[in-house]
Specification:
Blueprint (H helix, E strand, L loop, with lengths): L6 H15 L3 H4 L6 H15 L7 E6 L6 H8 L3 E8 L2 H13 L5 E5 L12 E7 L8 H11 E13 L1 H6 L1 H18 L8 H8 L6 H4 L6 H10 L3 E8 L2 H14 L8 H22 L10 E7 L6
Parallel strand pairs: 1-2, 1-4, 2-3, 4-5
Antiparallel strand pairs: 5-7, 6-7
The structure holds S-adenosylmethionine.
The site of S-adenosylmethionine has 23 residues, from helix 1 and helix 4.
Length: 311
């Protein structure tokens, strides 16, 4: 599918889609900058870095930072001193600046740029990170070369929230089940269907919601990610997988909720869906992740180290 569209087109669609998505992004994806959100982000990064995380990072760069979910939470936890957040979408960066101000975080700067062409000198950062961004980038070899270039020797890359190919395929079942059961679920809750189709909403508001299907251009196997990192010269490359049951549960509930007028979805349902997700996430982390291969989980996480000169 990717081969049929030019890289320029993919970047343009990503920019327009995320500019429109920015104002409701945090609400749609339940992005939180309180204790829960911080716990989620720290948990993911700790899976990759272990106790190394506690030393923190003086100077970090996030690519595809969106509204700041990953790096603002790490900064709020005191693990980043100086933070540069980049994104191809100015709408997203405006939302990020708003979030940083609301959290009282200083030392955050934003730069609108493509992750494949970073306007920073060589060896500028101790950490390059991203969450749910690699699967949007048309030229991943170029992007990883840039990550390596801007990292100081010994610096880390940390990426999380990337869809795995197998996990993505398996997630189609709960998504389909939600589509089939949505009318019954809405009737049981007395919820009205969401007004208008996606295309009608896009036309009505002059928005680009209809482009959603076009922005997700990759799903990965663990070896894909490992190869990309190694080809760019990273050492100590590790790929992990996370979330299986939590993910099926999450996609099913999200599918149901997305079919209804948001004000008709009762609070008790939202609480059940959120707490159930957290519970299953813990079960995945304790029982399944240590025993099953990364490839079958929904999300992949990657870390690697820019070699020291003596490496
Ligand atoms: C799924 S969102 C994730 C946002 C944020 N990292 C988070 O986890 O909430 C993907 C982000 O990547 C950005 N993006 C897409 N293509 C990009 C590119 N070529 N260069 C930089 N950012 C890009 C989008 O604008 C969007 O903010």
């Amino acid at each position: 599918m990717q081969a049929l569209r030019s890289h320029e087109h993919i970047r343009d669609v990503n920019t327009r889609y995320h500019d429109v998505a920015a104002t409701t992004y945090d609400e749609k994806w339940g992005i939180d900058f309180g204790e829960t959100g911080r716990g989620q982000v720290l948990g993911k990064v700790r899976k990759l870095l272990g106790p190394e995380l506690d030393a923190g990072f003086p100077c970090a760069l996030e690519v595809g930072a969106g509204t700041g979910y990953f790096s603002l939470n790490l900064m709020a936890a005191g693990l980043i001193d100086d933070l540069t957040c980049t994104d191809i979408s100015t709408g997203m960066l405006e939302a990020l600046e708003h979030n940083a101000a609301r959290l009282g975080l200083t030392g955050v700067s934003t730069v609108q740029t493509d992750a494949e062409a970073l306007p920073f000198p060589d060896e500028s950062f101790d950490l390059v990170l991203g969450h749910a961004v690699l699967h949007h980038l048309p030229d991943l070899d170029r992007a990883f070369t840039e990550f390596r270039r801007v990292l100081r020797p010994g610096g880390r890359i940390v990426f999380a929230g990337e869809p795995s190919r197998l996990g993505d395929r398996a997630a189609r079942a709960p998504k389909r089940a939600a589509r089939v059961l949505a009318p019954l679920w809405r009737r049981a809750l007395g919820a009205a269907p969401l007004a208008g189709s996606v295309e009608a909403t896009a036309l009505e508001h002059g928005t680009d919601h209809a482009l959603e299907a076009e922005v997700d251009i990759h799903a990965f196997s663990p070896t894909d990610l490992e190869r990309l990192a190694r080809a760019a010269g990273f050492s100590a490359v590790t790929v992990r997988g996370e979330e299986l049951l939590a993910n099926w549960f999450g996609w099913f509930n999200r599918g149901l909720e997305a079919s209804a007028a948001p004000q008709d979805v009762p609070l008790w349902w939202r609480r059940y869906a959120f707490r159930g997700y957290l519970l299953l996430q813990r079960l995945d982390g304790r029982a399944l992740e240590p025993r099953l291969p990364p490839a079958i989980f929904y999300n992949l996480l990657l870390t690697g180290r820019a070699p020291l000169e003596r490496d």
